């Protein structure tokens, strides 16, 4: 019988993600240790909070698998002075991980219930440098632009002009680009007003909606 407690399961997950190369820098590893994923999943799913899977969070949406959060966080090259925009707050977990690594996170969520859920989860975790905004993230968030980094956590068929405009020169945009059940995680760096893009890996995210 599996009688491991959550703390042991968390340690085992972090160890295996490190081994797989999904968690590399000491900062990202520390953020994973500090943030309680069990506080961002549905109460009935807490026993599975440290299995490496996406889980349902309501409104037909999911919290991403820990390995994907690790990979995307690392690709964003978070710096202490960064102001980051996330599109798709969902449970608030990805924003919580980023909050430990950067100065400020703004996260936009289309579904009102999920924006409220993310706010509650972040508050309970004692996180004060994340602002959750209810709205359509394809428009970015003009109010606090420019951003050093933008992370999109829903599948998008294109890189919206607002994201390019609201990113600083040299800033990084990370987004799953594609539709249906296949997207390419795309890393774009803003250079001379344009994007220099590269595909990192194939992935599956819930779609961006309007
Ligand atoms: N980052 C989240 C998981 C995101 S799931 C976490 O850590 O839990 C993708 C989210 O994108 C869903 O919550 C969905 O409602 C949201 N979404 C879809 N279209 C959107 C849009 N146009 N603007 C903002 N959020 C959107």
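Sequence proposed for the structure above (210 residues):
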């Amino acid at each position: 019988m599996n009688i491991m407690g959550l703390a042991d399961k968390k340690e085992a997950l972090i160890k295996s993600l490190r081994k797989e190369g999904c968690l590399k820098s000491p900062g990202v590893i520390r953020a994973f240790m500090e943030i309680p994923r069990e506080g961002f999943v549905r109460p009935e799913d807490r026993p599975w909070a440290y299995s490496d899977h996406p889980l349902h969070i309501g409104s037909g949406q999911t919290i991403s698998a820990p390995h994907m959060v690790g990979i995307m966080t690392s690709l964003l090259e978070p710096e202490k002075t960064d102001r980051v925009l996330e599109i798709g707050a969902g449970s608030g977990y990805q924003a919580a991980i980023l909050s430990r690594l950067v100065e400020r996170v703004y996260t936009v969520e289309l579904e009102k219930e999920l924006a409220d859920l993310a706010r509650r989860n972040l508050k309970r975790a004692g996180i004060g440098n994340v602002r959750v905004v209810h709205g359509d993230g394809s428009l970015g968030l003009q109010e606090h632009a420019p951003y050093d980094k933008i992370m999109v956590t829903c599948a998008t068929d294109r890189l919206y002009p607002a994201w390019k405009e609201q990113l600083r020169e040299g800033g990084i945009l990370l987004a799953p680009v594609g539709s249906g059940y296949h997207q390419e995680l795309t890393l774009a760096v803003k250079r001379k007003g344009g994007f220099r893009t590269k595909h990192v890996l194939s992935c599956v995210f819930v779609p961006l909606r309007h």
